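Sequence dictates fold. Next comes a concrete instance:
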Amino acid sequence: NVVKPPNYKKALSFIDNYPMYNGQPYYQFLDLNFQDFDLTIDKRKPKSSFKKYCINKYLNTLVYYSMCLSQKKRKKYKEKNMDLLLGSIIKNEAYWQYSETPELFEQFFKKIKN
């Protein structure tokens, strides 16, 4: 949940409690290549893609985490942010199709490449 104005410090305190997978940070879990299926997310709406819903949420979480890290000036946070951006699905164009705003990822990674 993003409040306005964002409380980056409090968000980071929550993110620090996110789970590890095989001893790695949650964002380094890259194995999302499973068969998609439809499910009811909201009973007022028709069934929709599990991947479209969940991967979109996951990508948003990664973006928000990157925003939190970018607020910090110390070198360790900059390194952690680069690890997040380069070591997660956020850099993989194949997953951008599940985002509600794939153009943001395209613009962002064009800036990094330049």
